[in-house]
UniProtKB/TrEMBL annotation:
Residue ranges of every copy of the Glutamate/phenylalanine/leucine/valine/L-tryptophan dehydrogenase C-terminal domain listed in the record: 185-416
Positions of NAD(+) binding: T192, N223
Keyword Nucleotide-binding recorded: yes
GO terms under biological process: L-glutamate catabolic process
SUPFAM superfamilies named in the record: Aminoacid dehydrogenase-like, N-terminal domain (SSF53223), NAD(P)-binding Rossmann-fold domains (SSF51735)
Active site annotation, chain numbering: K108
Protein name: Glutamate dehydrogenase
Database matches in Pfam families: ELFV_dehydrog, ELFV_dehydrog_N
Site positions per UniProt: Important for catalysis: D148
């Protein structure tokens, strides 16, 4: 069924779903309806490049379900985007929003493009064209987009402006992750990395790890990785290694994170920061440390790496960083406490929810309130997950997925076949 959702990332999301459906004893005839997205939209986005040529990019938006409210999830601009990956990410958004008890279904979008290959003018044209093509399928109560890999506040401002121009009025609540100057919320830019750090604090308490004397390694130094690095550094954690696509650095004495953040804000990437600490990017996930934070892309923690990893907490800041085979290894390595992605990185969508609520009400909150409400919601997700993992004798990932899936299924069963 639905051959369009191919590829290893969707295969992984499907298997995780089936494992959770078995644990919850969901009848076979109810499973396809929960697994396959409600709708998937493929769009063609032609733009004029600066040299006068016309180039066409392919884009997708997959809305997994709308049974609990509008579909919600980010849009990525990346050369690796395909419909299977976007669909898998939409499933994970569904379980994440339901785990956090947010009134949303799951969605994800993407355009297959290397954003670094575009000039600012071309990036704006592509962002606007993607939103233009999706106007018939989105809305503040239908589907609310947000940033992900390769997109940022500026791209969200272009999305919002394009939708608003079509509507003939300013509709700030159509996307989240916007600049504060045009309806964004304070604290959204930092929310995912800040939330990742909060779950690490809670995990450290669970395993009696003194964070102020601990070490961490972080893969990915974009929105999520750099904020998590900064927050962990502020807690006294020694950051031993970091990487992005362009460079990896390792310093057993600890890297100067504020200085590196300053460097990246001026140069865009890590490349060129230091020649002394340069290291092999493929080796950083297996450096001995207390906290390992994959904050880049899917499927980087393979079976081989899972066998070699020497950390006490694996904080999945990225979506889907751990393969099924690696999960099987971790089932035999209970000394590694895994904070599953749908819990670990849920601070982003939680503060997106606050942004949407504030836009709908046109009443804005202080940053203190945003942070404390985010932590409260994430604490509930964290403690529910840990408790249910112990009760059901399953992994933290399965406990979190089951909690999300249970909520989505309950809404679908209560409402009937339509949603
Ligand atoms: N932004 C958000 O609010 C949320 C993001 N996430 C997830 O977090 C992850 C990171 O997203 P985000 O920070 O927003 O994206 P960004 O585009 O801001 O950053 C991605 C980072 O990962 C790096 N990277 C990409 N591929 C590799 C690789 N193979 N090895 C090492 N580094 C790599 C990029 O390097 P370079 O710049 O050199 O390409 C960049 O530093 C994704 O999985 C995303 O889905 C989850 C929840 C919310
Ligand atoms: O902020 C959002 O709405 C979604 C963020 C996202 O894409 C994610 O959590 O993976």
């Amino acid at each position: 069924m639905f051959d369009i959702y191919g590829g290893p990332v969707f295969g992984m999301a499907r298997q995780q779903f089936l494992q959770a459906a078995d644990i919850l004893e969901i009848p076979t005839d109810q499973r396809d309806r929960l697994l396959y997205p409600k709708r998937a939209i493929a769009v063609t986005c032609p733009i004029h490049r600066d040299d006068g040529s016309t180039v066409v990019y392919e884009g997708y938006r997959v809305q997994h379900h709308l049974s609990l409210g509008p579909a919600k999830g980010g849009v990525r601009f990346s050369p690796h985007v395909d419909i299977g990956e976007v669909a898998a990410l939409s499933l994970w958004m569904s379980w994440k929003c339901a785990l956090m008890n947010l009134p949303y279904g799951g969605a994800k979008g993407g355009v297959r493009v290397d954003p670094y290959s575009l000039s600012p003018k071309e990036l704006e044209a592509l962002s606007r064209r993607f939103m233009q093509e999706l106007i018939p399928f989105v809305g503040p109560h239908v589907d609310v987009m947000a940033p992900d890999i390769g997109t940022n506040e500026q791209v969200m401002a272009w999305f919002m402006d394009t939708y608003s121009n079509d509507a003939g009025q300013t509709v700030t609540e159509i996307v989240t992750g916007k600049p504060v100057s045009c309806g964004g919320t304070v604290g959204r830019r930092e929310a995912t990395g800040r939330g990742v750090t909060h779950t690490i604090v809670r995990a450290a308490e669970e395993i009696n790890l003194n964070l102020a004397q601990s070490t961490a390694v972080i893969q990915g130094f974009g929105n999520v990785g750099s904020v998590a690095a900064n927050e962990l550094h502020a807690l006294g954690v020694k950051i031993l290694a970091i990487s992005d696509h362009t460079a990896a650095y390792h310093d057993p004495k600890g890297l100067n994170i504020p200085e590196i953040i300053d460097y990246v804000s001026k140069h865009g990437v890590l490349k060129g920061y230091s020649s002394e600490c340069l290291t092999d990017p493929n080796a950083i996930l297996t450096i001995k440390c207390d906290v390992l934070v994959p904050a880049a892309v899917e499927r980087v923690i393979t079976e081989e790496i899972a066998n070699k990893i020497e950390c006490r907490i694996l904080a999945e800041a990225a979506n889907g960083p751990t393969t099924l085979e690696a999960d099987a290894v971790f089932a035999k390595r209970p000394e590694v406490f895994i904070i599953p992605d749908i819990l670990c990185n849920s601070g982003g969508v939680t503060v997106s929810y606050f942004e949407w609520v504030q836009d709908l009400q046109q009443f804005f909150w202080e940053e203190e309130e945003i942070i404390s409400r985010m932590k409260k919601i994430m604490d509930k997700g964290f403690y529910d997950t840990v408790k249910s993992a112990k009760e059901l004798k399953v992994s933290n990932r399965m406990a979190a997925t089951c909690a999300g899936l249970r909520r989505v299924n309950a809404a679908k069963q209560a409402r009937g076949l339509f949603p």
